[in-house]
Amino acid sequence: MKLYTRTGDSGQTSIIGGKRDKDHIRVEAYGTCDELNSFVGKAVSVMDPELFPDIVPELMKIQHELFDCGGDLATVNEKAPVKVKSEMVSSLEDKIDEYIKEAPELERFILPGGSQAAAELHVCRTVARRAERIVAGLKKEEDINPEVLKYLNRLSDYFFAAARVANFRLSVPDVEYERSAIVFRGKNKK
Q1: Please, what CATH class does the domain formed by 13-176 belong to?
Q2: What pTM does this model have?
Q3: Phi and psi at residue 13, to the nearest 5°
Q4: Which residues does 110 contact at the CB level (< 8 Å), separation at least 6?
Q5: Where in the numbering of this chain does the Cobalamin adenosyltransferase-like domain appear (predicted)?
Q6: Residue 30, beta-bridge partner list
Q7: Which pLDDT does position 162 carry in this prediction?
């Protein structure tokens, strides 16, 4: 098998059910999911599986789910089955809720950083937000599986929550934005 096909040399690429220019928003959408997948792999590579026995396998699962997102976004054939389902969104919500309880309560905005693991997860968060923005733009132009947009929205929240847990487990404080007022109130604060 050859790695190169030369079929994209004219600036177009084949997708499921058609062709698009390589700079088309649909191609940008699934390409950004692919980019995010690479950053998730990088985050996994710096995380100790013994300290993160839950997060590392979740991230590996997310890599497969991002491939599913890309597959759905690369499909214009309306009869093709979708891969991203509402259960995937619910699963992320469950993990977010769990990690919010584990990490210390927030009072101020935080900056990306702290530990290397948290910094890598914050990069994932920002790329997920970019993917979400691109998919939202695509949704205005063409039909998409709406669960992909929901998934990417929750995924960025997941990365935020996981980054905070990474810092907490590594005993590294979150980096507070120094000019932030108290913007989040805990349950017991008024």
Answers
A1: mainly alpha
A2: 0.91
A3: -135, 150
A4: 164, 174, 175, 176, 177
A5: 3-166
A6: none
A7: 98
Q: Which residues contact 6 (CB under 8 A, 6 or more apart)?
A: none
Contact 68, 84 (CB under 8 A): yes
Does residue 187 carry a pLDDT above 60?
Answer: no
**18-21 and 110-111 strand pairing:** unpaired
**Position 190 pLDDT exceeds 60:** no
DSSP 8-state class, residue 3: S
Q: What Å distances lie between residue 42 and 3, 120, 133, CA to CA?
A: 23, 7, 22
> Largest Cα–Cα distance in the chain?
65
pLDDT for 186: 63
Q: How far apart are CA 77 and CA 16, in angstroms?
A: 6
d(CA 116, CA 119): 5
